[in-house]
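Team,

Forwarding the record for the chain on the shared tracking sheet. I've put the sequence and predicted structure together so nobody has to dig through attachments.
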Amino acid sequence: MKKKSIPVLLAFGLWVASPFSFHPVEATSHASAANEDQLPARLANLMNIAPEHQFILRNGSARIEVELLQWTLDHYGLETAVDGIFGPETERNVRQYQADKGLKVDGIVGTYTWAALYGEHEEPVDPEGKLPAELRNLMDIAPEHQFILRQGSVRIEVELLQWTLNEYGLETAVDGIFGPETDRNVRQYQADKGLKVDGIVGTNTWTAIYGEY
C-alpha cells in the first residue's frame, strides 16, 4: 500500500508546481494597480469634513489628512510621495500649488488651500455652457441679502460671481476661490458699471451681476 501511494504523491506535487496553478497574490496586486488613479475611499471620506473644519497642516504634520493632501498634489501634477508625512518635498509642492492658485504662499494648508484642494475632486464648471442649476438657484436670494464677497472668500457664491464675470467678457477661472484674478476682474466690472471700485461684492455689485441674466 505504501509503494502505490508514492506515484500519487508525485503527481500531486507536479500539479502544484505547474505554471498553470493559480496565484491569488498577483491577481490582487493587478487589481490595485488598475485603480491607482481613483482616490481611495478612506481618503475621499475625509472630504465629508468642511474645509474650514479640516486640520491645519504644515511641515512636520503626520496624519491621514496629509495623505489626502499628497495624493491630490501628485495628481495635480506636482510629483509627491503619498506617505502621510509632511516633509520638505510636500511643503515645496504646497507652496507651488498655492502660487498657482493665487493663494498666500506660506506652505501651510489652512481653509483656503483646503478649499482649493477639494475643488480638484469636483466636476469643473463649464463657464462657456449653461449656468448650472445650483448657481442659478443662488439668485433666489435677493441681492441685498447675498453674502458680501471680497478677496479671500471661498464659497459657492464666488462661483456664480466668477461664472458671470467670465460670461461678461472678463476671463475668470470658476473655482470658487476669490483670489487676485477675481479681485482684478471685479474692479474692472465695477468701473464698467459706474460702481464704487473697491473689489468688494456687496448689494450694488450683486444687483449688477443679477442684471446680466
